[in-house]
Specification:
This protein is mainly beta and 144 residues long. It is built from no helices and ten strands. Strands 1, 2, 3, 4, 5, 6, 7, 8, 9 and 10 form a ten-stranded antiparallel beta sheet that branches.
Length: 144
């Protein structure tokens, strides 16, 4: 199950979608998705079954200690895959990756970042992935 809050909601029953906007906040278990606007596609088969969420505007996804930001995000609830596009950043503890596209598989915990932007061109930095990893400091006095 998931919960959401927003400043506004527009339900478009004939199109099987809802548009929520203004400080959108969605939680599903330990997953939190925040955005300025979100379109929710659903099936109405004896009850509403959400299929996909398209988020835009200062998108932030948080799960445990991991956090990702980007311009837009597409969350396919059937496959449990989130694809983020446009100036994406992935933070895992003190480690940081930046690129044009991020694909997060919530089933496996695998995240992939590449330099491609939504238009197929490069991200900031010439279409390459950049990052910073923190290496734990070695204790030189410890026995080897």
């Amino acid at each position: 199950p998931g919960d959401f809050s927003a400043d506004r909601i527009e339900v478009q029953d004939r199109a099987d979608r809802a548009v929520v906007s203004g400080n959108v906040h969605v939680t599903q278990g330990d997953l939190v998705l925040d955005a300025a606007r979100m379109t929710i596609a659903y099936k109405n088969v004896g009850g509403v079954e959400i299929q996909r969420m398209d988020a835009a505007g200062n998108v932030r996804v948080t799960r445990g200690q991991d956090r990702a930001t980007g311009d837009v995000a597409i969350y396919d609830l059937n496959t449990r895959i989130i694809t983020m596009l446009g100036d994406v950043h992935l933070y895992q503890g003190t480690n940081h990756l930046a690129g044009g596209r991020l694909v997060m598989d919530l089933n496996t915990g695998l995240s992939k970042v590449d330099g491609r932007a939504a238009s197929g061109g490069g991200a900031k930095g010439g279409g390459r992935v950049s990052g910073r990893f923190t290496v734990p400091k070695r204790d030189e006095t410890a026995p080897k």
